[in-house]
Input
Amino acid sequence: MDEELNKISGVLSELRNSSKLNGANSQKLYGILFLGSKFNVITSIELQVLLKRQFNINISNESLNNLIPLACQSLNMSFEGLKEINNHNTTKPDSYMITLW
Output
């Protein structure tokens, strides 16, 4: 788990730096949506696709959802759990919105 956490943290750090330097152009560089007026918000769903496609990190949604709070807290990034409308039987988030900076 520590190795995966380090990899996720490294990618999030890279995305934060790119977002600060490149703004909207980061979308072209990484092929994911950067949301918000500062282009500094991503979703864990987009992150999971990016991890597999560009960083060769194959991780399940469940594993990624377990690691995001740890990675974000260590990087002082805020995050918000999101739930699908039809999934009201659990308190666990289905995905996250991550504010990179």
